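User: N-(5'-phosphoribosyl)anthranilate isomerase. Structure?
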Amino acid sequence: MSCRVKICGITNLADALHASDCGADALGFVFYDKSPRYISPEEANQIVAQLPPFITPVALFVDAEDALIESVVSGSSRWTLQFHGNESPEQCQQWQRPYFKAIRMKPEMDILSEACRYASATAVLLDAYKAGVPGGTGEVFDWHLIPDELSKPLILAGGLTPENVEDAVNTVQPYAVDVSGGVEQQKGVKDPIKVMQFINGAKRG
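Assistant: Predicted structure:
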């Protein structure tokens, strides 16, 4: 079964539609105002309303206030949620939407234990760890640290590019891969060629 692809850090309709046309399965929207890829709930919901069917919009939050999450999810029934901070399982569940929990690969992290805490998540997203940076580090972690016994579908993130994604898929065999900076012209603006190459590489892997 081919690997799914999430293109994250979408900030405009043109990038969203191009990624969809190239075969992306999901598009990520960042609701973290410290990120250069931040988008407002209003703008994101306008884009989501114009997405073709079978494309999953994913709302990324980092220890967000309830009011922000509500302003996003109230705009569309299509949202899946992605929590990238220190949210508890209870906080993630309360929205009664499918959600992913991001786990950053800290050296001392017990990944299996952390994944078990979020038993209600539909998937676990593993990302590189960089102190003070909740995501989008552009760095690759050691894929061999991923335990074989993960009970949840695995979304692989962290430093993926068109050049390494096929190797990543062959090595890790994740359910999905997630990319943001690796397919950009500049922060918040996608490179159409890189997006196409990344998706093709992931689906080949």
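DSSP finds seven helices and ten strands in the chain. The domain at 4-204 is CATH 3.20.20.70 (TIM Barrel).
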